[in-house]
Amino acid sequence: MASASLQFFAFILALFGVFGDIAATLLPNWKVNADVGSNIITAITQMQGLWMDCTWYSTGMFSCTLKYSVLSLPVYTQAARTTMVLSCILSAFGICITTVGMKCTKLGGDTDSKSHACFAGGVCFILAGIFGLVPTSWYTREIISSFLDQTIPESSKHEPGGAVYTGFISAGFLLIAGVIFCTSCFKKQQGAWIYPPKPHHFPSTEQDSNAGYNLKDYV
């Protein structure tokens, strides 16, 4: 019962991770303009994402421009696009597989099949968490290095946006959920490995017959 509750808790974490992963992929605020100078017009906020660049005005207007050209993008942006999409796909597969393998569901067949499905779903979550953690870390590193570069004017510097933090948190949720699913499937097997069953020795009928034959020789 405790293992089923733990799996359900991991499934809820995975759901939050999937939704956060999709939101981080689609949000346009991966980096925002930094208000660090005295000549910055604070009434305008410029944001850059993986798929579009947006500008928000103090009047309430909001305009976005899609990034059609892939080759014109920096390498870290192209890598972030690919890995985030893979993370979303793997996490979606993990949700489908763990739904079959969870102990609280009636799908998936016998216990061994459900354990294997649960383990496969946990591996999908771990891979999705890694694929989500790598681009957010790389993207943040590029933003910080550009921010600390003295040759770049202050008006062109940016800071990490909300999508980056959302990606970090979602990747953590997916990693935790994947570890819980993988470890919860092998508790019984680990107990069997730690305390292996003792072999039973049965007397051989051949030895009994030989013992009887030897007794006759002494008579």
Automatic annotation (TrEMBL):
Record's bilayer topology term: Multi-pass membrane protein
Pfam family, one: PMP22_Claudin
A Gene Ontology cellular-component term: plasma membrane
GO molecular function, one term: structural molecule activity
Signal peptide location: 1-24
TM helices/strands, residue ranges: 84-105, 117-139, 163-186
Coarse class of the protein's main subcellular location: other
Keywords: Cell junction, Cell membrane, Membrane, Signal, Tight junction, Transmembrane, Transmembrane helix
UniProt cross-references to PANTHER family, sorted A to Z: CLAUDIN
Function summary: Claudins function as major constituents of the tight junction complexes that regulate the permeability of epithelia.
Protein name per UniProt: Claudin
Species this protein is from: Oceanodroma tethys
